[in-house]
Write a structure and sequence with these properties.
This protein is of the alpha+beta class and 192 residues long. Helix content is 23%, strand content 20%. The strands form 3 sheets. A 3-stranded antiparallel beta sheet has the order 1-9-8, with no helix packed on it. Strands 2-3-4 form a 3-stranded antiparallel beta sheet, with no helix packed on it. It is globular and about 40 Å long. It binds FE2/S2 (inorganic) cluster. Residues 123, 125-128, 151, 153-156, 169-170 line the site of FE2/S2 (inorganic) cluster (FES). FE2/S2 (inorganic) cluster (FES) is lined by residues 123, 125-128, 151, 153-156, 169-170.
Length: 192
């Protein structure tokens, strides 16, 4: 009888150990995912981006500090739209945003040079990735849409300067990282 109990304890102990091993086996990938990789550390250095090939109206994505950066080459028409819908925005003067401390970023352009906007591609509601939607008044976004960034998670809307619309879950404009421009190069992570 004693033998039987000892054997049962041994078996239970073995099963429990195997369970822990299985859990550890499953957990390791997540833990290594959460731990900043060597690449992420490399990404903390300023990133140089050649913007010569970026066509007007198009957006390019880059990674900096492991986070997506959106760079859009805005056309003259896109820039003109920025003052046409300011009454729809929550913070058109960009007073409550995270951005470099320069007057240029508090203007409707929110950029060092109006043609290029540089934004952190992370929704200021709960961190989803907004979609670039440059078209005007598409059927799914309505007649009040003048082009910008739409977050599919909970419907937040941002204009082509990353300024948030009123009445959406996000309350703050898209963040602008430190950057500088030297001839045809944009240097993300380093101010001018
Ligand atoms: S995370 Fe973008 S709207 Fe919620």
């Amino acid at each position: 009888m004693e033998n039987l109990q000892t054997r049962r304890k041994f078996l239970l102990g073995t099963v429990a150990t195997m369970g822990s091993v299985a859990v550890v086996g499953v957990a390791v990938p997540f833990i290594s995912y959460l731990k900043p990789s060597a690449k992420a550390y490399v990404g903390a250095a300023p990133v140089e981006v050649d913007i010569t090939g970026l066509e007007m109206g198009r957006m390019m994505r880059k990674l900096w500090k492991g986070r997506p950066i959106f760079i859009v080459h805005r056309s003259k028409e896109m820039l003109e739209q920025l003052s046409a819908h300011e009454d729809l925005l929550a913070d058109s003067g960009s007073k409550n945003s995270t951005q470099p401390d320069k007057a240029e970023f508090k203007s409707k352009y929110r950029s060092l040079v109006p043609e290029f906007i540089v934004l952190l591609g992370v929704c200021t509601h709960l961190g989803c990735a907004p979609l670039y939607r440059p078209e005007i008044a598409p059927a799914d976004l309505g007649t009040d849409w003048y082009g910008g960034f739409y977050c599919p998670c909970h419907g937040s809307k941002f204009d082509l300067s990353g300024r948030v619309y009123k009445g959406v879950p996000a309350q703050i404009n898209l963040e602008i990282p430190e950057y500088s421009i030297q001839s045809n190069k944009l240097i993300i992570g380093k101010s001018a």
